[in-house]
Design brief:
- The strands form eight sheets. An eight-stranded parallel barrel has the order 13-14-17-18-21-22-23-24. The chain has a six-stranded antiparallel sheet with strand order 25-26-27-32-29-30, with helices on one face. Strands 1, 2, 3, 6 and 7 form a five-stranded antiparallel sheet that branches.
- It is 19% helix and 20% strand.
- Among the domains are: 352 residues, TIM Barrel, CATH 3.20.20; 119 residues, Golgi alpha-mannosidase II (Immunoglobulin-like), CATH 2.60.40.
- A hairpin with a 6-residue loop joins strand 4 and strand 5.
- The radius of gyration is 28 Å and the shape is elongated.
- 51% of the residues are buried.
- The chain contains 15 helices and 32 strands.
- The N terminus is likely disordered.
- Helix 9 packs across helix 10 and helix 13 packs parallel to helix 14.
Length: 725
């Protein structure tokens, strides 16, 4: 089906194109298309109304050909040599080429894995800057640069043409009628983050058109927007929406890479989320979200690619310039694997860093996204000396006039040396706080000696984040996220049940800090069901009542289950999708109540940390921890493994300037023990305490507290607001 390339042996160099017929009869130009030198910038395929400028980077290539295909993408109709080279950028201008044209590249150079080079002209390559990708990878031995099964392994050389198995890069016209679209620009203090999967969110949602389910247009359909607005979501964090491929080992099992953390195109929207009409579908989604006042944040995977290690395929970067794009081991045949996926992008290389920055600017300027969540972000900030807060990537990002105005979220760890960097990121990064997740789970599970840790998390994890001018919103507070148990499973399973993934239940986390309440999985026992429902409300309430930025996982608000699978990365099916058919309406109403409560009380949304210091306005502490009898906990109390009931009086921070002062005061109780009587804090004579939230009685309305104490139900959270008498 495709061109069968010339047979080349390892380490053979072909410096003189004239002496070798690399095109094998395929035209080097087309009558209807004029050729010109073009320009080195911008990189990628750029349509100007008359034709397309093609520009690609390779430091070590010896020749590069542009391959143009027929409209259906099946036949290669021309191989046009890129004869112009400005530094390490190769380019050509082809007149008459229009949006929709399918193309790829072939790159000639040494095949010398032991010195880091893996050029193979026989392999069709995706443009690293492709704005759209057509078709999906068909796994075949032909996409490998080496002969599969050879005793020389990756030191062998494969001469088969991979074009039949490869998707195509596609020329796009990025113009779009944005109308009066403006970014919602939600402050960190007002942010409610909601992690969602494009397909998982919409595949089973009633009211979403069957034609748009699982796609960008479905994601921003009226049912989705109505739901998110109802529960107060301000910012949707989409799991990977850049083009990715299904892992080979999953494909062999009939599975897919559902989550999408296997990138192959940093500029192209994932084709399976489009109806094949064009990138305007993604742009339309963003415009609809913005019209509803909701931001769009992309989960991006700039730490590795889908090309794997030395035994992985040659799809793009590996074939363009393996030595430049990837971090290689001392023996350059092998890859640094700080990601656990086989390879690690060489972010310290200026052209790789440029690619990442260009990609982000493209998504902001052309696609109008509002921010990024960086998967395994520590990799991006690792220099030769290790993690560096002033490293190239972070410096480039923070000084960028475009990217300096969007939300930046770090997953602050990776598998490399010094990979755990929670709290060490510079402003304005927000960080996923796994300490918060684990401590809150342990507390409500009933683990001993956790009260002091809970206090730290409720107060914004200041020991991690209160430095270098960082805000209290730096901590992203969550109890569930895509990798791990969903909320319903967290209270229904003691162990993971990942057999469907085909890895004998070895994958996924083992330390989930979960609790099945006495029965593994679903049950008809009403007492257990009630206990589970209460536990879920307690966990959610803690997230919404803590200082920091709260985050919800899609489906948790309606009691969605993934049947005990805590790693559904390969479950593109009912197990991985949100089940909207049996929503827990009571839980949904409770989440609405939490969102309303957080919006109504500024003390829950502070940017300044609370350190139990006296306020200038009234001399009262901004944070006052209390025992049930009303006294402040002693050092011995904080160490008491049997302490189960923590209360705290919260005011605006002592550092709050007068113009931002608020009279808002809340009294919060977190009781993981038996029923307890709590002494209420003293009040001004013209005020009273009003119970505004009780997880043990979630449907009750506000109640005035007339006495000096209040009974707190076992295993519950209560919120009291100071109100005028």
């Amino acid at each position: 089906m495709g061109y069968i390339g010339v047979s080349l042996c390892p380490t053979i160099r072909v410096p003189d194109r004239v002496n070798v017929n690399l095109n094998n009869g395929i035209p080097t130009k087309l009558r209807e298309h004029s050729l010109a030198a073009g320009r080195p910038n911008p990189l990628g395929a750029t349509f100007d109304g008359q034709g397309v400028n093609f520009a690609v980077f390779s430091e070590h290539a010896e020749a590069i050909d542009l391959c143009l295909f027929t409209d259906d993408g099946r036949k290669e109709r021309a191989r046009i040599p890129l004869l112009e080279r400005d530094g390490d950028i190769w380019h050509v201008y082809v007149g008459g080429v229009t949006p929709g044209t399918k193309y790829g590249f072939r790159v000639q150079g040494p095949y010398d894995p032991e010195n880091g080079h893996r050029f193979n002209y026989n392999k069709l390559l995706l443009d690293p800057y492709a704005k759209r990708i057509a078709g999906r990878l068909k796994w075949s031995d032909a996409v490998m640069g080496y002969r599969v099964g050879s005793p020389k392994a990756d030191l062998s050389f494969d001469t088969r043409d991979s074009a039949f198995a490869m998707p195509r890069s596609m020329v796009v016209d990025p113009s779009f009628n944005w109308g009066d679209d403006k970014p919602p620009a939600i402050s960190a203090s007002d942010t409610l983050l909601y992690e969602a999967h494009v397909k998982g969110m919409t595949a089973r949602m009633p009211g979403v058109s069957p034609m748009t389910r699982g796609r960008f247009l479905g994601m921003a359909s009226e049912p989705v927007l109505e739901h998110l607005t109802k529960i107060g979501v301000t910012t949707v964090q989409l799991m990977p929406a850049q083009a990715y491929v299904d892992d080979h080992f999953l494909a062999k099992q009939g599975l897919k890479n559902y989550w999408g953390y296997n990138s192959i195109g940093f500029f192209a929207p994932e084709p399976r989320y489009m109806t094949d009409q064009g990138i305007w579908e993604f742009q339309t989604m963003v415009r609809r979200f913005h019209a509803a006042g909701i931001e769009v944040v992309l989960d991006v995977v700039y730490n590795h690619t889908a090309e794997g290690n030395e035994m992985g395929p040659t799809l793009s970067f590996k074939g363009f310039d393996n030595l430049s794009y990837y971090r290689l081991a001392e023996d350059k045949r092998f890859y640094v694997n700080d990601t656990g996926t086989g390879n690690t992008l060489r972010v310290e290389h200026p052209m790789v860093l440029r690619m990442i920055m260009d990609s982000m600017r493209y998504w902001v300027e052309v696609m109008h996204v509002d921010g990024f969540r960086f998967d395994l972000a520590t990799i991006l900030a690792r220099e030769e000396s290790g993690f560096d807060r002033q490293g190239g990537f972070l410096d480039a990002l923070r000084q960028d006039p475009v990217l300096g105005n969007v939300k930046l979220i770090a997953e602050p760890w990776d598998l490399g040396p010094g990979g755990y960097q929670l709290g060490n990121w510079p402003h304005p990064f927000l960080e996923f706080n796994d300490k918060y997740r684990d401590n809150v789970r342990k507390y409500w599970r009933g683990d001993s000696g956790i009260v002091a840790d809970l206090a730290k998390r409720v107060a914004g994890s200041a020991e991690q984040f209160d430095h270098s001018g960082r805000a209290a919103t730096s901590s992203i507070n969550f109890v569930t996220v895509h990798d791990g148990f969903v909320l319903d499973d967290l209270v229904s399973y003691n162990v993971k049940h990942n057999a469907a993934n085909g890895e004998d239940n070895r994958d996924g986390k083992d330390d989930n800090y979960s609790d099945n309440m006495g029965v593994e999985g679903p049950t008809d026992d009403e007492k257990i069901r009630a206990a589970r429902a209460l536990r879920k409300r307690n966990l959610l309430a803690t997230v919404f009542l803590s200082q920091g930025t709260p985050m919800l996982l899609s489906g948790d608000e309606i009691g969605n289950s993934q049947w005990g699978n805590n790693n559904t990365y390969a479950q593109d099916n009912d197990q991985g999708w949100v089940n909207w058919n049996k929503p827990d309406h009571k839980l949904l109403a409770f989440v609405e109540k939490l969102a309303d409560l957080r919006r109504a009380h500024p003390v829950l949304r502070q940017s300044r940390f609370l350190h139990s210091r006296a306020r200038r306005t009234d001399g009262k502490p901004d944070l006052f921890w209390r025992m049930p009898d009303g006294r402040a906990p002693s050092a011995e109390d904080w160490q008491n493994p049997n302490w189960r009931s923590l209360s705290v009086e919260v005011r605006t921070s002592s550092d709050t300037p007068e113009y931002a002062a608020s009279n808002d005061v809340l009294f919060l109780t977190f009781n993981a023990g038996d029923e307890v009587t709590v002494k209420m804090p003293d009040l001004p004579p013209d005020c009273l305490w009003e119970l505004v939230l009780d997880t043990a009685a979630p449907e009750d309305g506000p109640q005035c507290i007339t006495g000096t104490s209040a009974k707190i139900a076992a295993q519950s959270v209560c919120v009291f607001a100071q109100t005028p008498a």
